[in-house]
């Protein structure tokens, strides 16, 4: 039986998908409570986009089950499509239409009347701060404007679930911040969001819960704080005035820390994991002062999600092509068009 739509908006159970000899998904489970954001975090090739395409009915799983808004993605794909909005990695807009015309067309494709489609298009043009450009051809838009228009298109039918597949890929910092703000507004309105991203900062900023996926498997899950706690400890950083003092500093940090210190000579910095936080910092500074080491800067930092990914996988989030069939045809398209 499908999960209750009122409590769980999206559920996947043991999803498996292979392409030739490549096992893109190897038993992926996920669950998104209604009105929350799940961040699916991992490098290119981890299986994020394959997961998205199954949940949006663009692909069928080889095995496993998935439900979106209470509907089985295989048995009832049309109901799933009526319940979702999808914004892919590349903005799916018609360059020869204006921003308004793009959104009006989407509304009509969803079966809206001319009047309702027009009203909704104007509402979204205003909401996404495209008023000054709404009647211009979208080919004149910047990358950030095209991304906002694409996100607006995913919301035309006011879907219960919005799937954002790496929504800030290729955007400059300002564009990323604008997109984050829009996603925050969606969640405030009660929309359920599945967000895939390679950006650890993005998952930390936006997601209520995070799943880390690598080589088609979910390797960890929880809140950002819970994942950071798995790495353990904080990082004590000391920057000294003279590179000749690095050895003495490293010795002190080895004594107060819980791991072997790391020295970055070009920055005259020594780092070490500590379990006692501020106490370790105070003790390190006391000992360095006794040895007349001149400290320029000191910091105590919680582990980042970068640290988490490295600790969990043993490697950085390197890029690797994700095995997909018919990739060029499906990349960036809206689920409603299938």
UniProtKB/TrEMBL annotation:
Which segments show compositional bias classed as Basic and acidic residues? Answer: 316-329
Q: Give the CC-aspect GO terms.
A: plasma membrane
Q: Which organism is it from?
A: Actinokineospora globicatena
Q: Where is the ABC transporter domain positioned along the sequence?
A: 10-240
Q: What is its main location?
A: membrane
Q: Which family does it belong to?
A: Belongs to the ABC transporter superfamily. Drug exporter-1 (DrugE1) (TC 3.A.1.105) family.
Which SMART domains has this protein been placed in?
Answer: AAA
In terms of PROSITE patterns, this protein maps to: ABC_TRANSPORTER_1 (PS00211), ABC_TRANSPORTER_2 (PS50893)
Query: What Gene Ontology molecular-function terms does this entry list?
Result: ATP binding; ATP hydrolysis activity
Q: What is this protein called?
A: Daunorubicin resistance protein DrrA family ABC transporter ATP-binding protein
Q: Name one GO biological process term.
A: response to antibiotic
Keyword Protease assigned: no
| Keywords associated with the record | Antibiotic resistance, ATP-binding, Cell membrane, Membrane, Nucleotide-binding, Translocase, Transport
Q: Does the keyword Ubl conjugation apply?
A: no
How does this chain sit within the bilayer?
Peripheral membrane protein
Question: What subcellular compartments does it reside in?
Answer: Cell membrane
What Pfam families does this protein map onto? ABC_tran, DrrA1-3_C
Q: Where is this region: Disordered?
A: 316-338
Query: Superkingdom of this entry's organism?
Result: Bacteria
């Amino acid at each position: 039986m499908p999960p209750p739509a009122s409590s769980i908006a999206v559920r996947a159970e043991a999803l498996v998908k292979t392409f030739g000899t490549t096992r893109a998904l190897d038993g992926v489970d996920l669950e998104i409570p209604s009105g929350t954001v799940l961040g699916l975090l991992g490098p290119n090739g981890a299986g994020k986009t394959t997961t998205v395409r199954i949940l949006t009915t663009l692909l069928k799983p080889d095995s496993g089950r998935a439900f979106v808004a209470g509907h089985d993605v295989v048995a009832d794909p049309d109901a799933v499509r009526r319940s979702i909005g999808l914004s892919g990695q590349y903005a799916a807009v018609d360059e020869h239409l204006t921003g308004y015309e793009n959104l009006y067309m989407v509304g009509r494709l969803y079966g809206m009347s001319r009047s309702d489609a027009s009203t909704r298009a104007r509402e979204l043009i205003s909401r996404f701060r495209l008023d000054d450009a709404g009647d211009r051809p979208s080919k004149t838009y910047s990358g950030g404007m095209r991304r906002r228009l694409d996100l607006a298109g995913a919301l035309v039918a006011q879907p219960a679930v919005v799937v954002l597949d790496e929504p800030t890929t290729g955007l400059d910092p300002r564009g990323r911040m604008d997109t984050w703000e829009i996603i925050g507004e969606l969640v405030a309105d009660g929309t359920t969001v599945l967000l895939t991203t390679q950006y650890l900062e993005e998952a930390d900023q936006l997601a209520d819960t995070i799943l880390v996926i690598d080589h088609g498997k979910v390797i960890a899950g929880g809140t950002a704080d819970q994942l950071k706690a798995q790495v353990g400890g904080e990082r004590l950083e000391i920057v000294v005035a003279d590179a000749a003092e690095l050895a003495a500093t490293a010795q002190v940090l080895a004594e107060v820390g819980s791991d072997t210190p790391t020295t970055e000579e070009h920055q005259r910095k020594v780092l070490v994991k500590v379990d006692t936080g501020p106490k370790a910092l105070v003790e390190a500074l006391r000992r360095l002062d006794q040895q007349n080491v001149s400290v320029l800067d000191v910091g105590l930092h919680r582990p980042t999600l970068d640290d988490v990914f490295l600790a969990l996988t043993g490697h950085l989030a390197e890029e690797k092509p994700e095995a997909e069939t018919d990739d060029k045809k499906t990349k960036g398209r809206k689920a409603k068009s299938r």
